Amino acid sequence: MGQVLVTGAAGFIGAHLCRALLARGEQVIGLDNLNAYYDPALKQARLAALTGYAAPGAFTLHRLDLADQDAVLALFRANPAIDRVVHLGAQAGVRWSLEAPFAYTAANVTGTLAILEGVRRSEARIRHTVYASTSSVYGARTDGAFRETDRVDNPVSLYAATKLAGEAMAKSYANLYALPLTGLRFFTVYGPWGRPDMAYWLFTEAMLQGRPIRLFNHGDMRRDFTYVDDIVTGVLAVLDNPAADGAHRLYNIGNSHPEKLLDMVATLEELLGVKAVREMLPMQPGDVPATYADVSAMQRDFGWRPTTDLRTGLTRFVAWWRSHFG
Fold first, then answer.
1. 85: part of which helix (H) or strand (E)?
2. How many domains are there within the chain?
């Protein structure tokens, strides 16, 4: 059996994916730089939690920066058994891209290019590379479900622009070198072990501490909240089924059921037993009012559909929060 390289292995989705791969007996090589965009202790805790799923030697972590192209290429050379890649490593967060733009070009553009070069130059044929994109590429849309065939030439954040650059580079590498590459546009992923910069985490923390929650666009936002286990199931379904002709493909992967942000707040109030103090604020630069995934292509090609509703997902998140933080 070959090995799977997972970039961003200590990240939210990456750690969940590594757990699922290990649980089905895969050999996993993780790559992560454990940066301080949010508390690295959370990333270390995610990695520590993998030990219960990994047979001895089944998981190894390489701490390196995606933008260090020489180190990335050396990793591929040193591990010729890698035959599949899931590239999740990125600099995430729309709002922070306003403050640290070069972190986004380094990780999301240079880093993605380094992975593509590693795949191209690999001694063993890489059977499939799946990489993460984002619903942010669709821009400030409010006109119904987002489809993969929609135009995406009007990004409203640098984060979205760098992820679009990754899509364009992947398509060019697939065309030039016949590499099987599939991009997945994730829609607002949430769940246990999540990211502290996401709304559901920020709201939970603030509500339990008696602080106001900040509701941008005066709370008039809709998000296609997608539970992390559904995302992982979809990633695995795609990873296991590369295009036969080595083509580049793009898919939305989301819940396909946008929820009002204020409904999410009401659900958290019920689950936490705490009434939120609400601070209404204008729209943040780079943010979008709504996301809504058309996932018919994922259903058609992989038989995938989300199965976790928002209440169930938030119930699991709150249970994890209480277990982890007390």
1. strand 82-87
2. 1
Instruction: Note the pLDDT tens digit of each residue in 206-225.
Output: 999 999 999 987 877 888 99
| Planar angle of CA 289, 290, 295, nearest 5 degrees | 160
List the one residue out of 28, 14, 118 whose CA is nearest residue 75: 118
Helix axes 12-23, 228-239, angle to 10 degrees: 60
The SS3 call for residue 260 is: strand
β 3-7/27-32 pair status = parallel
**Model confidence pTM above 0.85:** yes
Whether the CB-CB separation of 168 and 113 falls below 8 Å is answered with: no
What type of residue is 223?
R
Instruction: Indicate which residues carry an active-site annotation.
Output: 159
Q: What is the pLDDT of residues 44-72, one digit of tens each?
A: 999 999 988 878 889 999 999 999 999 99
**Mean pLDDT, residues 122-133 taken together:** 94
| Residue 209 placed within a domain | no
Helices and strands per DSSP (H, E), number in the chain:
11, 13
Q: What is the CATH number of the domain that holds 19?
A: 3.40.50.720
Residue for token pair 């899509």: 167
- Residues 238, 65: Cα–Cα separation, whole Å: 26
